[in-house]
Specification:
This protein is an alpha/beta fold and 278 residues long. The protein has a single domain, classed as Rossmann fold (3-Layer(aba) Sandwich), CATH 3.40.50. Helix content is 40%, strand content 22%. It has 10 helices and 8 strands. Strands 1, 2, 3, 4, 5, 6, 7 and 8 form an 8-stranded mixed beta sheet that branches.
C-alpha cells in the first residue's frame, strides 16, 4: 500500500521515542491490552475506517483481524512508524488490499469531508498539542451517523502498593515532562466535555480498570511487569531532558521488581474509552 506525504515539517515530540525497541514494545502493548480495549467495540458495520495516529500499526493489525470486512486508512507523522506499519501490515495475508498508511497532520487532514464511516484513536490525543482541533477534523471527515471510538489515558489513576518513592518520583516527572512538551497525561477524564463541545452525539464514556491484588497474583505480576516496560520506555528521554537522574531510573526499576514479587502487592490503573456518533 502507498505511503503519501503531506506537507509536514517535523514529527511531534514523542515521550517514548522511536527506537526499534519502542516499536516492538508498542506491538506487545497492543496485544496485551487487546481484550480490555476491544471488548466493547463493534466496527462490523464500518466499511471505511480512519485510524488517527496509527504508529507502527499495532492497533491497525488488530482491527483488520477482528473486522475482516472493513478497509483501514491510518495516518501518522513519524516516518519511522509509518515504514514499520506498512511493512508489518503488508506481511499479513488478512490485511492484503485492506489498508492505506499515509503521512498526514491530524489537525489538518487532506481528506474530503464525510470520507469515512468510522474513526478510531488509541493513546494518541495525550501526545497532541491541540486535541480539540484533531477531534474537530475527525468529525469533519466522518459522514453523518459514523461511529468514533477514542481510548485515552488517565494517569492520575495509577496506584501501586507497597509504596515506592522512586517510582512515584519518576511517575511525576513522566507526567510533568509529557505536559511540558504539549501533551496531556490526564486527557481521558476530559473526553466527554471535548466531544460534546464539538457537536458529537450519543457520547458514552466508560472507565476501563486494571485492578489486581492477592485474588489474582499471576495477573497482578504480569500487569506490573507490563507497566515496568511502559514506564521505563521513557527513561532515556527523561534523563536526556534532565527531569530525572539515571539513579532515580535504576531505583525505580528495582522498586518495580520488588513490587512485582511482593505477596501483598496492589496495582490499579484506569483508562477511558469514549464512544460517540457524528
Amino acid at each position: 500500500m502507498k505511503t503519501e506525504v503531506n506537507n509536514i515539517a517535523t514529527e511531534f515530540p514523542y515521550l517514548h521515542g522511536f527506537s526499534p525497541a519502542e516499536q516492538e514494545r508498542l506491538r506487545q502493548q497492543a496485544a496485551y491490552a487487546e481484550h480490555s480495549i476491544y471488548q466493547n467495540i463493534n466496527f462490523s458495520g464500518v466499511k471505511n475506517l480512519l485510524e488517527v495516529g496509527c504508529g507502527v500499526g499495532a492497533q491497525s493489525e488488530i482491527i483488520l483481524r477482528r473486522f475482516p470486512k472493513l478497509k483501514l486508512t491510518g495516518i501518522d507523522l513519524s516516518d519511522a512508524q509509518i515504514s514499520m506499519a506498512s511493512q508489518r501490515l503488508a506481511s499479513l495475508d488478512f490485511a492484503k488490499d485492506r489498508f492505506d498508511i499515509q503521512k498526514m497532520n491530524a489537525s489538518k487532514m487532506t481528506f474530503e469531508s464525510g470520507h469515512f464511516d468510522g474513526g478510531f484513536l488509541c493513546w494518541v490525543l495525550e501526545h497532541m498539542p491541540d486535541p480539540l482541533r484533531v477531534l474537530s477534523e475527525v468529525r469533519r471527515v466522518l459522514r453523518q451517523g459514523s461511529t468514533l471510538v477514542v481510548n485515552e489515558v488517565m494517569n492520575s489513576s495509577f496506584f501501586l502498593e507497597p509504596y515506592s518513592p522512586n517510582v512515584w518520583q519518576y511517575w511525576m516527572a513522566f507526567n510533568d515532562y509529557q505536559s511540558s512538551i504539549g501533551g496531556d497525561p490526564f486527557i481521558g477524564m476530559k473526553l466527554g466535555n471535548m466531544l460534546q463541545s464539538l457537536g458529537y452525539q450519543d457520547i458514552r464514556t466508560t472507565p476501563v480498570t486494571w485492578h489486581y491484588d492477592n485474588r489474582t497474583p499471576q495477573k497482578r505480576k504480569e500487569q506490573i511487569e507490563f507497566w515496568t516496560d511502559l514506564l521505563l520506555s521513557a527513561s532515556d528521554q527523561l534523563v536526556k531532558a534532565n527531569v530525572v537522574s539515571s539513579e532515580i531510573v535504576e531505583k525505580a526499576r528495582v522498586e518495580l521488581e520488588k513490587v512485582a514479587d511482593d505477596p501483598n502487592a496492589v496495582f490499579h490503573y484506569t483508562f477511558m474509552q469514549a464512544h460517540a456518533k457524528v
